[in-house]
Amino acid sequence: MTDKKPKSVFKQGAISSEFIGESIAKHQTKTSIGAHNIFLGQVRADVIDGKAVAAIEYTAYEDMANQKFSEIREATFDKFELTCMHIYHSLGIVKAGEICLFVFVSSPRRKVVFEALEYIVEEIKAHVPVFGKEIFEDDSHQWKVNN
Amino acid sequence: MTDKKPKSVFKQGAISSEFIGESIAKHQTKTSIGAHNIFLGQVRADVIDGKAVAAIEYTAYEDMANQKFSEIREATFDKFELTCMHIYHSLGIVKAGEICLFVFVSSPRRKVVFEALEYIVEEIKAHVPVFGKEIFEDDSHQWKVNN
Amino acid sequence: MRITIKYFGLIAEVTQCEEETIQFSGHLISEVLEILHSKYTELKNKNFQVAQNQELVFLETRVTGQELALLPPFAGG
Amino acid sequence: MRITIKYFGLIAEVTQCEEETIQFSGHLISEVLEILHSKYTELKNKNFQVAQNQELVFLETRVTGQELALLPPFAGG
């Protein structure tokens, strides 16, 4: 019961908690699953030089990014025995406290979901051309860099 | 902004996807958080000798279990720099496809949530006196054992 | 002394009860188990741990008179 | 040949445009960058990678005439 068809990864704006709840609900008919693991990236209100980040505006080289997401998907299914895998990333404005990345993996057994989830998140951070403009409360900005 | 007060860990019946969604929503005011990691245990419809598991009935030595959950909580906050941590476990009947364990950790940065979540789940599996009666479609049963 | 013993899961299936109080004049956990093994012969074939005062104990641990529990393999999560 | 170049994030701030087409008569990525560095002098101080046909390439890679992109550090997730 793998689920390898390409998905639309990008969503305009923040990813809502309702959307995440509904994604979980959709997996309750898949009764071979014993373990889910979910990573959520949330925009932090970091304070830099006395100014707090109010939002991040995400842009992407979308064609290349979708290609990379697809490669990460294939590589993950090859490496780990997963039942399902879903990735969603925001584009546009995501306010501090809102969710910009949702990665969801499911498997019959737990060990594999921990390894697979961390692998996917690190691959996304390293290889997907997404750019983040950290917008401060006074409308000034700086460009975010993954570490 | 640690959150160390004891919580009621056990919930009667399955843990709903709406409850999980609402838990996520409650963390969107905590703008120091950059990463959440969620583990969900789901009851599998394993087929054993031709019969599928229809549900698991969970019981626990509740006083000792709550004591162990509390010790795991303390140890986790000591080992990992977490902003929040929540654990919920079902008691009573949980049908195949429904969720029986919900562990939720949050931190400013991602590395720590992966390590902390796996640590917590393994500690729960190993040290918390919870017992599972796997009930088959024909009402026969066997006792589940963690591996 | 009187001690309360709790049974869980498949152990409670063997004992047919979830809790009982017994009169005990020995010292060690192993001696309590001898009493229980003769009362419930099927217990010998079962895998379980013993908790006293909500902590796992050994056969050689002294009985303090507090609550004991016979715990089959854990299955949480 | 004519090649299309896309700019993203802080690179697009320097170039003040997100995409342009230039006339190019050389062979290597490094030669394209020489043209861009002279057009946008501030580029020299910026950190970026170059993608051709949606794959990262090196300075010595041959230009195939397809789409190029200048990518500042990634910040996904």
TrEMBL record, chains A, B:
Assembly with partners or alone: Heterotetramer of 2 MoaD subunits and 2 MoaE subunits. Also stable as homodimer. The enzyme changes between these two forms during catalysis.
One matching Pfam family: MoaE
Enzyme class: transferase
Protein name: Molybdopterin synthase catalytic subunit
Superkingdom of origin: Bacteria
Catalytic reactions of this protein: 2 [molybdopterin-synthase sulfur-carrier protein]-C-terminal-Gly-aminoethanethioate + cyclic pyranopterin phosphate + H2O = molybdopterin + 2 [molybdopterin-synthase sulfur-carrier protein]-C-terminal Gly-Gly + 2 H(+)
Keywords, comma-separated and alphabetical: Molybdenum cofactor biosynthesis
Enzyme nomenclature, EC number: 2.8.1.12
GO biological process, one term: Mo-molybdopterin cofactor biosynthetic process
Gene3D superfamilies the record matches: Molybdopterin biosynthesis MoaE subunit (3.90.1170.40)
Protein family according to the UniProt entry: Belongs to the MoaE family.
Pathway participation: Cofactor biosynthesis; molybdopterin biosynthesis
Gene Ontology molecular function: any one: molybdopterin synthase activity
From TrEMBL, chains C, D:
Listed name of the protein: Molybdopterin synthase sulfur carrier subunit
Top-level taxon of the source organism: Bacteria
Gene3D superfamilies: 3.10.20.30
Pfam families: ThiS
InterPro entries in the record: Beta-grasp_dom_sf, Mopterin_synth/thiamin_S_b, ThiS/MoaD-like
SUPFAM superfamilies (alphabetical): MoaD/ThiS (SSF54285)
